[in-house]
Every structure is written in C-alpha cells, then in structure tokens.
C-alpha cells in the first residue's frame, strides 16, 4: 500500500495533522500503539493554543474545529467531548505543616486571568475524549487508521525519495507484519519517539536547565480550593490551571466539567525524593508513585483536605511516573521525516506550553507538506531550525521559575517573562496569525531573550529578603520596555485581570 504521509501517533497533534492533510487531498495513514479512548496526560490549553486552533480551522477550512477554541462555543457544539473551564492561571504558596494562609497584599498567591468571561475562556482537555474526537474527524476526512500497531524497520531510498515502512500489529492472534510505502514519515508520538528511534536521531539534551520528575493521575471528587478565595480575585481560582507551590516542587490541579480532576506533582531533580519511586509496585522497599504523592501532599494540610479519596481513577494501572520530563532530540527534520514539536523536545508542564507548541508545529508542518518540492523542503528546514530555538527559549522561561521557586516573590517575578512572551506573541497572532516574524512565543526577539537571561542569573536560592526585593525590582525594570499591561505592578497585588474578548472570537463563533 502507498500513502503520501504516514503519521506515527494519534494524539491530538497527529490526528489534527492527519485531518488537515486528508482534507486537502493527501493520502494519510495514522499509526498508534494504543487504542482509543486511552489515557493521556497534558490537558491545559492557553489563549495562544486557542488562537492557533482557530487559525488552523480558518486556514485549512476545518469549520468543525473552530468551536474548540473557546469553552462556551465548545460546550454548545460538542457537549459530549469532555473539557473544563480555564479562566487563567492560579498559584498558591503552601508551607509544610501549616494551613494555607495569604496576606492582604497576596504575598502567597497569584491569579493571572486569560479571558474576560466564562464563554471566552480557555479549556482543560480530557485528552481521552478530545483525542478520540479529533481522530474521528481525521478518519471522516479520509485518513486511514492502524491502532495497536508500531513502526518496525523503516528504509528510505534517497533516489526515489520513498520510504518502505514495516508495520507491526501488537494485538491479534499473531504479531502480524505488513509493509507500506510513503513519501513522508511524521513523528507525532510525543515521548514515544517512534521515528527518531528508526532514523538514528539521538538525544541532545544535556544543555537543558529544566530537569524535573512527575507523578500524575486523574481523580474523582477533588474539592475546590475555596479557602483561598478572595474578594478581589478576577475569576474563581479553581477555574484555572491551578498551581500549588510546595517546598520541594508544585502540584497541578485541572478540573474537568465531568468531575474528573487531573492532578500531578512535579519536582526538580535536585530536590526530589522521587529517585526512590518506581513503577514496579508490590516488591519490598518500593515506593509507588501513589505512595509518594500521598506522602508529599499529606505534609500540606490544606491540600490533603481537598482529597476525600486518594484512589486514582486513571491511568488504570495507577498513578503515572516520569523520572525526567525534559528531553530533546538532535534534529527535528531529516530526509523524508519530520518530528512534531513535542516529539522533538519537551520541557515541563509549568507554563502549560505543550498544547500550544504542538499546535504551532501542526500548522507549520501542514503548510510545508501541502507544498511541492523545494518549497516544502525550504519550509521544513526553517521549521527545524525554529523549533530547536523554541525549546531552548521554553527551557529558559521554565528553568528560571524553578530556580526562583523557593522564593514566591521571585517566582512571580520570573514567571512574568512567560506571561510577557505569551502576550506579545498573541499580539503577533492578532495582527497576522500566519506570519510570526518574532517567532513562537517571541523566540526570535533577541532583546527579550537577553533580558530574561540576565534575570535568570538573579533567581538564586537562599536570598535574604532585601536581596529578593532588589532582584524583583530589577526584573520589573528589565521587563519595562515590553510591559504595557503592568505586570509586577505593586498596585495590582498579584491579581491580573483580563478585559478584552479574544481576537479569535469571530472564528470560534462561526458555525
Ligand atoms: C506530566 C505532563 C504534563 C503536561 N501538562 C500539560 C499541560 O497542562 N498543558 C499543555 O499544554 N501541555 C502539557 N503537557 C504537554 C502535552 O502532554 C503535550 O503537548 C501533548 O501530549 C502533545 O500531544 P501529541 O499529540 O503531540 O503527543 P501525545 O499526546 O504524547 O500522543 C502520542 C501518541 O503516540 C502514541 N505512541 C507513542 N509511542 C508510539 C509508538 N512507538 N508507535 C506508535 N504510536 C505511539 C501514543 O499512544 C499516543 O496516542 C504535559 C506533559 C507532561 C509529560
């Protein structure tokens, strides 16, 4: 059998790319080692992601995709596809052994609104539901699916420019093998790394500053964090990517509309005790991910009180565990193959940047693969160079926050670089969603990056209060050339409101 494009991975990015290419007349095969619906982690979207989703819908004529760009239009058009309402980012600093407490000036909390009203808000994606929905759209458009199948040996003939790809079925009575031919091989397997393994594309990530480990799962009946609510909150802090900052890391909570809450604990490798965690439950002396999670959260009474039951509902085998989240491959593009952003490199969930980055890659790779010959190769070459810089920039934006994390004031200071980059990038998208002269999240703005780099050096542990105040003031000064919205302004007391309806509203509302 012959296909224009074989996509390994049927997560949302592989499915969306398959949908676009099939809608535009390309023959597409999507291969996944699992079967839908299946558990997937990574669920919090952002205004940047919504912008890109709306643009993908508009640019490639996917009218059915557009409503997913806002919570209100999503609920109206696809009530059966499970999501959650996300009005912004909320952060709370807990002290071990003590109930959570904030001050009048919100020295222990930060709320950053991303939307002006519930209708326009961003979403949390129950990935099992969303990915299955998008895969269905790809199939309706003509993409062929092979589930419970992996790539075997892949051989590229440079003269014909064609791949011979062995497919190996994992299910069924015998390990069935078949061979197909294709022009392009796309890796959308995220951490699965299917294509990199086949083409000998090694890891290149010693340079990464962010080194974190995580345990995660889905729980039922997690209570809202109502004791933190304050009269001047711009939105309910539970309708958010909720970050609980702890002494050794942080815990996320993402609440879906069906009562499921995605919960995870992330710790930098230099602080974590996760070294002792293993997935091999049952043996003596072994600490399971769930044990570690429970033990850690029980040190924080306000957090432990949110759980009526510590039993995780998904994944079915119990809480997931990743010893190191950050990773990067040497190349994003090679002869006849291309990696989507999260298959190329991933940093960390702190800024919820993964979905937006993945969507930005779907856009660029689709644009390239829909062109012929030299134009396609030129576009992919640029994509490969850009995505490599983007992972480095995301690593700086994230690594600085971990460096500052023990000091909540400094953490808020450095996190402002991410907010600034997102705000500026959304301005580019509003001006022309198809051309980003300063790159994804302002990666190509060398002055912004240099200023953030200087601030990274200021974010050290164990500072005195006066040092910390001075560093915070310096960060505010460094931000000043871009800061039209008053980030880090004392008068806002860590409460950042958002007033405008999204620029992509018109696309999302189009039925
Ligand atoms: C702990 C954690 C938390 C995160 N939180 C967030 C967040 O809140 N917000 C955010 O924006 N991003 C987050 N991310 C990032 C987010 O998970 C990714 O952006 C997203 O999963 C990328 O989607 P994808 O479709 O490219 O790949 P994936 O979702 O990883 O899908 C890959 C697919 O490939 C399949 N596959 C894997 N290996 C093979 C193989 N060898 N052969 C065939 N198929 C294979 C899998 O079965 C799967 O269906 C998080 C990531 C992690 C690790």
Summarize the helices and strands and which ones pair or pack.
Blueprint: E1 2-8, H1 12-23, E2 28-31, H2 47-59, H3 71-77, E3 83-86, E4 88-93, E5 109-113, E6 122-125, H4 127-140, E7 144-146, E8 149-157, E9 162-169, E10 177-187, H5 194-199, E11 212-220, E12 240-245, E13 250-255, E14 260-268, H6 289-297, H7 301-304, E15 320-322, E16 327-328, E17 333-334, E18 337-339, H8 341-344, E19 345-346, H9 354-369, H10 373-404, H11 408-431, H12 446-458, H13 465-479, E20 495-496, H14 505-509
Parallel strand pairs: 1-2, 1-10, 2-7, 4-12, 5-20, 10-18
Antiparallel strand pairs: 3-6, 4-5, 8-9, 9-10, 11-14, 11-15, 12-13, 13-14, 16-19, 17-18
Helix pairs in contact: 1-4, 1-9, 2-9, 2-11, 9-10, 10-11, 10-12, 11-13, 12-13
This protein binds flavin-adenine dinucleotide.
Report on this structure.
The strands form four sheets. Strands 1, 2, 7, 8, 9, 10, 17 and 18 form an eight-stranded mixed sheet that branches. The chain has an eight-stranded mixed sheet with strand order 15-11-14-13-12-4-5-20, with helices on one face. It is built from 14 helices and 20 strands. Helix 1 links the parallel strand 1 (2-8) and strand 2 (28-31). The model has no long low-confidence stretch (mean pLDDT 94). It has helices at 12-23, 47-59, 71-77, 127-140, 194-199, 289-297, 301-304, 341-344, 354-369, 373-404, 408-431, 446-458, 465-479, 505-509, and strands spanning 2-8, 28-31, 83-86, 88-93, 109-113, 122-125, 144-146, 149-157, 162-169, 177-187, 212-220, 240-245, 250-255, 260-268, 320-322, 327-328, 333-334, 337-339, 345-346, 495-496. The two termini are 37 Å apart. Helix 9 (354-369) packs antiparallel against helix 10, helix 10 packs antiparallel against helix 11 and helix 11 (408-431) runs parallel beside helix 13 (465-479). Residues 8-14, 31-34, 40-44, 150-151, 188-192, 194, 214, 216, 264, 322, 325, 340, 342, 349, 352-355, 358 line the site of flavin-adenine dinucleotide.
């Amino acid at each position: 059998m012959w296909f224009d494009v074989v996509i390994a991975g049927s997560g949302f990015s592989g499915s969306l790319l398959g949908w676009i290419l099939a809608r535009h007349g390309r023959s597409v095969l999507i291969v996944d080692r699992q079967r839908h619906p299946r558990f997937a982690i990574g669920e919090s979207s952002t205004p940047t992601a919504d912008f890109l989703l709306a643009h993908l819908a508009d640019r490639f004529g996917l009218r059915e995709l557009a409503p997913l760009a806002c919570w209100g239009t999503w609920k109206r058009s696809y009530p059966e596809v499970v999501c959650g309402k996300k009005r912004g980012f909320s952060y709370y600093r807990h002290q071990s052994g003590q109930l959570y407490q904030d001050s009048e000036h919100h020295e222990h909390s930060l709320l950053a609104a991303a939307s002006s009203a519930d209708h326009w808000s961003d979403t949390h994606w129950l990935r099992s539901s969303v990915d299955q929905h998008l895969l269905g759209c790809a199939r309706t458009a003509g993409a062929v699916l092979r589930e419970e199948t992996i790539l075997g040996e892949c051989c590229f003939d440079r003269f014909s420019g064609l791949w011979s790809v062995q497919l190996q079925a994992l299910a069924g009575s015998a390990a069935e093998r078949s061979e197909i031919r294709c022009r392009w091989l796309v890796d959308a397997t995220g951490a699965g790394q299917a294509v990199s393994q086949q083409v000998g594309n090694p890891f290149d990530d010693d340079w990464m500053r962010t080194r974190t480990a995580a345990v995660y799962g889905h729980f039922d009946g997690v209570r809202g964090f109502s004791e933190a609510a304050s009269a001047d909150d711009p939105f309910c802090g539970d309708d958010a990517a909720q970050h609980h900052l702890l002494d050794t890391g942080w815990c996320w909570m993402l609440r879906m509309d069906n009562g499921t809450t995605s919960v995870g604990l992330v710790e930098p490798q230099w602080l974590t005790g996760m070294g002792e965690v293993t997935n091999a439950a049952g043996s003596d002396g072994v600490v399971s991910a769930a044990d570690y999670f429970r033990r850690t959260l029980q040190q924080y009474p306000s957090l432990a009180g949110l759980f009526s039951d510590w039993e995780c509902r998904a994944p079915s085998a119990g809480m997931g565990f990743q010893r190191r989240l950050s990773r990067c491959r040497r190349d994003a593009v090679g002869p006849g193959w291309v990696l989507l952003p999260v298959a190329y490199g991933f940093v960390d969930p702190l800024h919820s940047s993964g979905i937006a980055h993945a969507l930005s890659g779907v856009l660029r790779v689709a644009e390239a693969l829909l062109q012929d010959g030299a134009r396609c190769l030129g576009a992919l070459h640029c994509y490969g160079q850009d995505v490599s810089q983007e992972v480095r920039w995301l690593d700086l934006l994230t690594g600085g926050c971990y460096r500052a994390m023990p000091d909540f004031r400094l953490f808020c200071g450095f996190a402002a670089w991410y907010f600034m980059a997102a705000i500026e990038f959304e301005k580019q998208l509003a001006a022309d969603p198809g051309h980003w002269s300063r790159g994804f999240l302002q990666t190509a703005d060398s002055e912004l990056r240099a200023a953030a780099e200087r601030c990274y050096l200021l974010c050290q542990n164990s500072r005195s209060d006066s040092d910390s105040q001075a560093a915070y003031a310096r960060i505010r000064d460094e931000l000043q050339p871009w800061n039209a919205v008053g980030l880090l302004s004392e008068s806002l007391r860590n409460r950042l409101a958002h007033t405008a309806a999204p620029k992509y509203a018109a696309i999302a509302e189009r039925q």
